[in-house]
Structures are given as C-alpha cells and as structure tokens.
Amino acid sequence: MTQPFALFIRAEKSLAFDISDRLGFEMETDALAVSIFEDGPNTMAVQALFETEAQALACLGYLKLPNNIEHFVTQLPDEDWVSLSQSGLPPVRAGRFFIYGEHDADKIPKDAEHPIRIEAGMAFGTGHHGTTKGCLLMLDDMISRGDAPRRILDLGCGAGILAIAAAKGLNKAVIATDIDPDAKSVTEVNAKQNGVSQLIDAHVADGFDSPVLKDQSFDLIFANILAGPLMGLAPDIANALAPGGQVVLSGILDELADDVSAAFGAQGLSISPQPSLSGWTSLLGIKKPDQTAGS
What we know:
Elements: E1 5-12, H1 13-26, E2 33-38, E3 43-50, H2 53-63, E4 70-75, H3 81-87, E5 92-94, E6 97-100, E7 114-117, H4 130-145, E8 152-155, H5 161-170, E9 174-178, H6 181-193, E10 200-204, E11 218-224, H7 227-240, E12 241-253, H8 257-265, E13 270-273, E14 280-286
Parallel strand pairs: 6-7, 8-9, 8-11, 9-10, 11-12
Antiparallel strand pairs: 1-3, 1-4, 2-3, 5-6, 12-14, 13-14
Helix pairs in contact: 4-5, 7-8
C-alpha cells in the first residue's frame, strides 16, 4: 500500500485512549492501522490509516468528536506506513514476559521466560502503555508467589495479551471475552501464533449476563478496561470472583484510582494500588476467603 490517508486526532489522555479503542475494536471502520502515542504532558495523539480519503472522512463522521478536539485528515508520503507504524513500537519487558512484534523477533532476551508476539495493527492492544504492562507485572508477581488459580477470565480481552500471558505463565485454560467480534478473532490469531490456542477459549460477550459468563465463578479475573466501565461492573466482577479470588483492574488514570478503589472496596474486596506507570494505576482486588456472593 502506498500513500495512505491519515486521520490525526489530538486529545487529553482518557479521551484519546477511548477514541483509539473505538477505532480499533468498537467501530466498523476500514482502518488499516491505529496507533496512539504521547504528544505532550497531558495529551495523546491518535493516528488511523486508510486507503482512501473518503474512508478517513467517513470514520471521522462516525466518531462525532466535540468541536474543540483538534483533528485533520492528510495524505502521507509514499511509504509502507503500516510496517513503519509497527516497527516504531519498541518491545515491552514486564518481568518474565516480553511483548514484541515480528520486526523485533531477533531482540528476545535469553532470560525472557515467556515471549509473546503481538503485531501492532491496533496499537491499543499491543501492551505498549502502562495499563497492560501493569497487569503483566501483577501476573508476574502472582507466578513468583506460587499462586495457582484454576479458573481464569480475561474480561475485555482486546488483542488477547493477558489471556496469552496467563496461559503461558500459569499453564492454565483461560476464557477471553470482548464485546467486539474483531477482538475475539484477533485473540484467536494471536493465541495460535503464540502456541496456546488450545488453552484459550475466546467469546463475544457483553457483560456477565452473557451465556458464557452467567453463573460462572473465577479465581482470577483480568479487567483492563477504563475507570468508568470498571466502576459500573464492580458488583458483577465481585460476584463472579470465587472466595479468595483475585481481580487485576487496569485502564485507570492515576487521578481516578481512588474512585475505582472505593467502588470495589464497597463490594467487600481488599484493594491494593500498584505503582503508577506513565500516568496509569493498576489495582489488585482480593475477595475474602469466607466472602459469599453479594456480601
């Protein structure tokens, strides 16, 4: 592909990540690649590539951005911009996990116990910001402690990184769910190329009333979403945790961490904030061993 049209959007962090998520997984778009990167102390830039200007403008219309959000569409020079977008993302090390693209296959450290190959077509799901890395570091700590959860859920799986990491690191079966069918397909492709497709059961599911999750109980839940949806799901997530179970909460801007902690604390969970990574806080929630559903 040569000379694609790029839609650029600049916004504050939480809105920028919401836009990238919508472009990457929630909307039916013709985007060839979606990337997000820091563009100032408090802002991020989102870039989506399209084959035609009409596709870029149509996508912009679907987004219905506020009038004060800076955005424009432009044609890029004659380059392989999809490949360049992927090669611009460096590998990510998180304890025993190493997230990389095919272009960095020669950079896998010898001591990386669990390398995970994720291509960067949709950058929000590649592990290249603090939310996913925070989850991986918590999983790494669990493995170091010898935790052995039997039933695992990756809620809002995106590209499937956390499901793949749990399958590799714990050698356990994982249910991965997302509201978007594309996320299910991407997760299945990534699971296959990482050799754990037999351990990952991916589904399209909108919340815990979906047949695949209804009345299910889990020892470990990953919920790397955003603060607002997490707080709304707090009762359902707490109810789905087995006594003594753990939930890894992420996608939380530092300034919203107390609100999310309070929402899950109100459900009886013990909450431990983790160190901030690039402005994002992850939380570990633990259900009391003697706590029953709804108490």
